[in-house]
Amino acid sequence: MLTINNISKSFFHRKILENLSFKVKRGDTIALLGKNGIGKSTLLRILGKISQPDVGDILYKNSSIYKEKASVRKGMLYLGHDVGLYPSLSVIDNIKFACTVHGVKVKENSILNTLNQLGLSKRIDDQIKIFSKGMLQSLKYALADLIEWDILFFDEPFSSLDLKRRKIAQDYINQWTSKSKTMIFATHDPEWGLSYCSRILLLDDCKIKIDQKTTQTEINQITKTLQ
Amino acid sequence: MFYTLVRKDLLLEFRTKEIIIPMFTFGLAIILIFSLSFNASQEINHTFSPGLLWIIILFVSSLGLHRMFVLEKEFDAFTLNLAAPIDRGTIFISKVVSGTILLLIAEIMIIPPFVVFMNLSIPSNWPIMMLILIIGDLGIMSIGAIISSLSMRAKLSEILFPILFFPLVSPHLIACVKATNYWFKGIPFINWQSWVYLIITFFIIFFLVGFMIFDFIAEE
């Protein structure tokens, strides 16, 4: 589904990623692990075509996301560290806009249902600039629920969530996993990755140090690198 | 998609009023400073007015452009546009069009006080001036959208933007001033139409350049 070919990226002559290559199969749930500043978010931003690699190419469904038309990226959803919505627009305006630019037409009832599940239905007309970080994080799940995607890149899926919202978020992820959706999560929680993902990608020293199924991976193997 | 992007920009402005109000206030302040400090006869005002008008439009547009792209930076909202499967050129066109609409609204509010305070008499063939304003604004916004998207991720974008924008927009602005000057003098259009063609040329060049390179300059 997704082929990453020799991706390299530097910031101010400092190498972040070097000749990274891997393939993502349909139905893979990948936990992208690594220390702070190692390049997890950078890699996700490159995959989401927000950041440009210095060299290399990415093929999505056998089409290059850099050389082909933008429409080949339909079905890719990137949810970054920040919410990526407009603070001065209301929840409903933001969701409608996000869905439209992703080529999805949603009915207001569907939006209300999703927001209801996330406990945000009463705040539908509020500008999101007054939202807490946890509420903004919940909005990302609303987007992922309403936008039809084939592959999801999600940076820190549980950041700032309280216990109740974390459970709702986990339910969403379980639901997507049961539908064999393809997902890549950048996370700092190796235990969660081993429990809920099918594959581990561990970044270290600009390269992929571990790329294997979670069933074959020991937690010590990961924590040793992360320490 | 183009309509959705323009609608979003206008909706953002409708909700925040962070672009037009500062543009209008700033424009009005400059008009007052100019009119009070010159205190000149109508004839002298007529000579200087085209230049002054476009200087006001330049400052006002740079204020609006900067604010427009700052709104995209907050909460990393611009990534929503970049990550979506939409052509980056469409994002550029939408920025130029929505920016021009906002600038024209600001001009509608600024030009009447400019005429009153500078004690100007308006020539009868004002539709030509409307044309100069619209194409002039489109050109300014095309150049501005390129520079804003280039500088928006820079740490010192507030400084970088005018350093890059003002020199690049100068030839276009000079053509606008020249055309406005001839219009103010009431000279038949046929005698100065080359300046209007030059404005159109500048607009087309920067519009096409922006459309083609926006994919590269918008990305990190």
Description:
The complex is a heterodimer of chains A (227) and B (220). Chain A is an alpha/beta fold and 227 residues long. Chain A is built from seven helices and ten strands. In chain A, helix 2 packs parallel to helix 4 (133-146) and helix 3 (108-117) crosses helix 4. Helix content of chain B is 85%, strand content 0%. Chain B contains eight helices and no strands. Chain B is globular, with a radius of gyration of 18 Å. Chain B starts with a helix and ends with a helix. In chain B, 43% of the residues are buried. The chains are: A alpha/beta (227), B mainly alpha (220).
Briefly summarize what is shown:
Chain A is α/β, with parallel strands linked by helices.
Q: What are the salient characteristics of this protein?
A:
heterodimer; A: 227 residues; alpha/beta; four-stranded antiparallel β-sheet; 7 helices; 10 strands; B: 220 residues; mainly alpha; globular
What's the layout of helices and strands?
The complex is a heterodimer of chains A (227) and B (220).
Chain A: E1 2-11, E2 14-24, E3 29-33, H1 40-47, E4 55-60, E5 63-64, E6 76-79, H2 91-101, H3 108-117, H4 133-146, E7 151-155, H5 163-178, E8 182-186, H6 190-196, E9 199-204, E10 207-213, H7 219-226
Parallel strand pairs in A: 3-8, 3-9, 6-7, 7-8
Antiparallel strand pairs in A: 1-2, 1-4, 4-5, 9-10
Helix pairs in contact in A: 2-4, 3-4
Chain B: H1 2-16, H2 20-38, H3 42-73, H4 78-83, H5 88-117, H6 126-151, H7 157-185, H8 189-218
Helix pairs in contact in B: 1-5, 2-3, 2-5, 3-5, 3-6, 3-7, 5-6, 5-8, 6-7, 6-8, 7-8
Distance between the termini of chain A: 33 Å
The arrangement of helices and strands of chain B along the chain is HHHHHHHH
Number of helices of chain A: 7
Which stretches of chain A are low in confidence, meaning pLDDT under 50 for 5 or more residues running?
none
Beta-strand percent range of chain A: 25-35%
| Radius of gyration of chain B, taken over Cα atoms and rounded to an integer in Å | 18 Å
**Strand-pairing-aware structural class of chain A:** alpha/beta
Mean pLDDT of chain B: 89
Order of helices and strands of chain A: EEEHEEEHHHEHEHEEH
Count of discrete structural domains of chain B: 1
How many strand units of chain B?
0
* Order of strands in the sheet with most strands of chain A: 6-7-8-3-9-10
DSSP helix fraction of chain A: 25-40%
Mean pLDDT of chain A, nearest integer?
Answer: 90
Q: What is the distance, rounded to the nearest whole angstrom, between the alpha carbons of the first and last residues of chain B?
A: 23 Å
Taken from the alpha-carbon principal axes, the silhouette of chain B is: globular
Number of helices of chain B: 8
Helix coverage percent of chain B: over 70%
